[in-house]
Amino acid sequence: MAEAGHINYTPPFRGRGVRKLVDAPPPFEKIPIDWDHENLLRDIEEKLLADMDAFIRSNECRRGAILKYFGENRNLVCGECDCCRKSQAGRDKPRRDGRDADY
Q: What domain range is 60 assigned to?
């Protein structure tokens, strides 16, 4: 490759071993960019981020929300995730009027 002029070869321990002979990159203005496609990709990423934010801030069962995301439309309450535990903790507390929460 060195004989063909594709690379400059310097034997080891004298600096870099191989140096590429390539043209400098073109200026940014000359690079063809499909801005419509890039904007579409950005919109998709922003939607995914908004969905994740809604999931984090939601009070619904985490497992149920994940199953719903993947197409299972069951009204699941797992009783194990942070939202279900928080909901159960509120129900287990005695009411102010002295009655149990189930009544």
A: 34-96
Q: pLDDT truncated to tens, each residue of the chain (103 aa)?
A: 777 878 877 666 655 556 677 788 889 889 999 999 999 999 999 999 999 999 999 999 999 999 988 998 878 889 999 999 988 876 655 445 544 444 3
Confirm whether 4 is domain-assigned.
no
Asked whether residue 83 is assigned to any structural domain, the reply reads yes
Note whether residue 20 is domain-resident: no
Domain count, the chain: 1
- Judge whether 1 and 21 are in contact, CB under 8 Å: no
pTM of the model: 0.53
Q: Has residue 12 been placed in a domain?
A: no
Q: Which H, E and C letters describe the chain, residue by residue?
A: CCCCCCEEECCCCCCCCEEECCCCCCCHHHCCCCHHHHHHHHHHHHHHHHHHHHHHHCCCCHHHHHHHHCCCCCCCCCCCCHHHHHHHHHHHCCCCCCCCCCC
